[in-house]
Amino acid sequence: GFLFLGSPGFVEKVNNVFVLVVITSFLGLLTLASTQVDPSALLRTDWKSVAPAIPVMFVALVYHNVVPVICTQLEGSTTKITNAIVRGSAIPLVMFLLWNAVIIGGTDIQTVKEAAGDGEIFDPLAQLRGGSGGAALGSLVSVFSEFAIVTSFIGFVIGLLDFLSDLWRGFPSLSKASPAVERAALYCTILIPPAIVAAIDPQIFFGALDNAGTFGISVLFGIIPAAMAWNERYNTATLAATPPLVPGGKITLAIMIGIASALIVEQVLDKTGVI
CA-to-CA distance for 63 and 222, rounded, in angstroms? Predict the structure, then answer.
């Protein structure tokens, strides 16, 4: 509701408060959970599990959703945009690595194997919320999880709203609608389809995450951005609107397209039983 009714400035301030709650609860989690970490557990390896995890890793590329919004808010300043993206990516990366260290180091591998043997998905957060690490830790996990989802949700909605607004204005018949009607239609387009899917199949998340990383995100945020950059830099007679922000030229772009394409091929072969 506050996303639809609130001004961009108000939404940004509320989101900043939520981010502060996420960081504070996360620090509390690390403090409490670190006492239960077994350092030797961090040395365990299972390279066979890397390939199935790659599609989920690709989901991280979805941050591209908010890049147009960042560019607009920072008025096209290359330096500010670079700093915002690099620092904004580095902070959650550090949080992610620390959180993985706590989860891996504090999880009994035998419990994971038993869950896998029973065909169940092992959820360490569910165990922590259930009080396996203490009541205080369980409460902090709940707070962190809820606010992490909320801040991600806000970022997704804002990014999609910016994208769909541009798409909406590309249709003359739609662009004649009043701002209120346009805004309501855009929010319905963003929120109603996933709400229907979630209501039909509440367990769809993990399967959708895997397929989204393999096909949707690999194409939308791996192949297409690199192809667009290639076309603007090397296939047009006019100069690019901005200088390249990422070094490496054609090699970097080719590697991006190659990795995304290889993931799609590998997953198609895997899902069809070829490999």
Answer: 12
Which is it for the CA torsion 87, 93, 96, 100, positive or negative? negative
Give the pLDDT band of residue 65 (cuts 50, 70, 90): confident
- The C-alpha torsion from 23 through 27 and 29 to 31, rounded to 10°, is 180
Amino acid letter, residue 160: L
Q: Provide the whole-model pTM.
A: 0.66
Q: What is the dihedral of CA 103, 105, 110, 116, to 10 degrees?
A: 30
Quickly tell me which residue has 């009714």 as its tokens. 5
For residues 147 and 150, give the distance between their C-alpha atoms in angstroms, rounded to a whole number: 5
The C-alpha angle with vertex 153 and arms to 147 and 158, in degrees rounded to 5, equals 130
On the question of pLDDT at 185 being above 80, the answer is: yes
CA distances from 238 to 241, 252, 254 (A): 9, 22, 22
Return the DSSP state at 177: S
